[in-house]
C-alpha cells in the first residue's frame, strides 16, 4: 500500500501564492507519474498538473504560466507552486501518484485532498 500526505492548502487573497506538497510513502517499487487534480463544488475532478517521470509535464490551460509542478530529490514528494491565484482556483486539491509494481501492474493512489480558498 502507498500513503499520500498532502499539505499547504489554506485561504489566500487573489493574486497571492501557495505551495502544496504531497509525500508518498509505503510499498513503492517505482513511481510512473505524480500530479495534482482539483475539484470545485458541484464540478468534476480535473487535472491541474502532472509530471511523468522521465517524460512530459502537463498543465491545464487555465493554470499555465501561473502554476509549477516539481519533485524533490528523493522523487517521492511532489510540489505545486501556485502563483497569481484567482477566485476560480478555489477547490479541493488532490494529489495523485501512479506506481508500478515488480510485475509491471500500475496502480493509482489519491490523497485525501487539501482545500485552497482564494478570496478577499
Mean pLDDT: 95
The coarse silhouette is elongated
Distance between the termini: 40 Å
Biggest sheet features: 7 strands, mixed
Percent of residues in helices comes to under 10%
Total number of helices: 0
* Helix-and-strand structural type: mainly beta
Quote the beta fraction: over 45%
Q: How would you describe what is shown here?
A:
It is a single chain. Helices cover 0% and strands 57% of the residues. It is built from no helices and eleven strands. A hairpin with a 5-residue loop joins strand 9 (91-100) and strand 10 (106-110).
Can you give keywords for this protein?
seven-stranded mixed β-sheet, 11 strands, 120 residues, mainly beta, four-stranded antiparallel β-sheet
What's this, in brief?
By secondary structure, the protein is mainly beta.
Present the secondary structure layout:
Elements: E1 2-7, E2 10-12, E3 18-26, E4 30-39, E5 46-52, E6 57-59, E7 67-71, E8 77-82, E9 91-100, E10 106-110, E11 114-118
Parallel strand pairs: 2-11
Antiparallel strand pairs: 1-3, 3-8, 4-5, 4-9, 5-6, 7-8, 9-10, 9-11
